[in-house]
Amino acid sequence: MMQPAGQLEAHSGTTTTVPGARRAGIVGVGSIGVAFALQFARAGWGVRLFDPDAARRAAAPAELAARLADLARTGPGPELIDESAALIAARVEVVATLEAAAANADLVQECAPERAELKRELFAQIDRAAPAHAILASASSFLAASKFVDETLPGHARCLVAHPGNPPYLVPVVEIVPAPFTSPAAIARANALYTEAGLLPVHVKKEVTGFIFNRLQGALLREAYCLVRDGVASVDDIDTVVREGLAPRWSVIGPFETVDLNTRGGIASHALKMGPSYEQMGAERGQHDPWTPELVAQVEAARRAALPLDQWEARVAWRDRQLMRLAKHRKSAPPNED
After folding, report:
1. What single DSSP character describes residue 245?
2. Does the keyword Oxidoreductase belong to this entry (predicted)?
3. Under 8 Å between Cβ of 101 and 109
4. Rounded to a whole number, what is the largest CA-CA distance in the chain?
5. CA dist 277 → 75, 136, 200, 270 (Å)
6. Which of 44, 188, 286, 321 is deepest in the core (most CB within 10 A)?
7. CATH number for the domain formed by residue range(s) 2-203
8. How is the chain split into domains, by residue range?
9. What is the rounded distance in angstroms from the CA atom of residue 180 to the CA atom of residue 194?
10. What was the pLDDT predicted at 337?
């Protein structure tokens, strides 16, 4: 039997899902599960939450309410939620069984711990319980779907990883990572569903450990740890370089566009001038991954398709204006102030 999230006291415990809205089932009510529930509900979806731990089920409504309250009181500036926190919360139900969470769902989002055998067991249950049209997605951070789903599962072709930023309602990227057996139709439907939910799906074309998000984060962390180990810099100074140096630019544009705009002539000019230095830095860590002419040409072609060189000056000026806005915001809201 479904138990409405009564602690939220929204509309007398009844849900307020928009007629015809999508439905999401969430299995695993840790921090990511609650965050996904908030994002889906914010997009107007009906959401059912399940966790085998009764204590986690009991705690979820209050956690959801607290996060919504934080979103509701941010300011000044544009609001982060377009409706009342109570109205959004009323779209979320805590249910007592996995079957209830998966029933009638368009998308079932598994958010269990990073253990292959546990996920294997859950996906077998979800596949039996979810309607045939539902996408079955894991929020796994490192494990590819083929590690816990195999082709003996009847619904294997609709299974994939959908790894979010944390929390997804503030970091909207979600990595769509199909297994070799995931159908193209399921990939397309997953992209459409997460887009409808207000997220930014990114297609990871191959199963690799850590996908894109954690491989990029891991590269920076490995070097950061090495710099501390080698006595080059303190933990605080490294955090300062990232927070005050790399992060402001990367919050506006990505690493490829950053170096494309940093060097007149674009990314090909940057690779010609700086490639040998980056190759040397990699070699110092035992890594030999030079930027070959063919690889640079591939990246340059993508950048020039996005930004012809005759628009380079205008884009640099745009970047600087975005950084000015960010600097103004950061000046008005010190990082240690609630």
Report:
1. I
2. yes
3. no
4. 65
5. 44, 44, 34, 11
6. 44
7. 3.40.50.720
8. 2-203, 213-332
9. 21
10. 55
What CATH class is the domain 213-332? mainly alpha
Q: Which residue has the tokens 């929204």?
A: 10
Distance CA(196)–CA(186), nearest Å, equals 15
What residues contact residue 316 under an 8 Å CB cut-off, 6+ apart? 261
Q: What is the mean pLDDT of residues 297-316?
A: 98
Read off the pLDDT of residues 182-213 as tens digits, 9 standing for 90 and up: 999 999 999 999 999 999 999 999 999 999 99
- The one-letter amino acid code at 92 reads V
CA quadruple 308, 320, 322, 274: dihedral positive or negative? positive
Return all residues near 286 (Cβ < 8 A) that are at least 6 apart. Answer: none
Q: Which pLDDT belongs to residue 104? A: 96
Tell me the C-alpha to C-alpha distance, in Å, between residue 251 and each of 97, 103, 211, 319. Answer: 40, 38, 20, 11
For residues 297 and 293, give the distance between their C-alpha atoms in angstroms, rounded to a whole number.
Answer: 6
Alpha-carbon distance values, 169 to 11, 36, 324 (Å)? 23, 7, 25
Is 130 exposed, middle or buried, given 0-12, 13-18 or 19+ CB atoms closer than 10 A?
buried
Size (the chain), residues: 338
CA-CA distance, 257 to 292, in Å (whole number)?
A: 19
- Which residue, 30, 184, 22, is CA-closest to 107? 22
Strands (E), the chain: 2-4, 23-27, 46-50, 92-95, 107-110, 135-138, 159-164, 173-178, 200-203
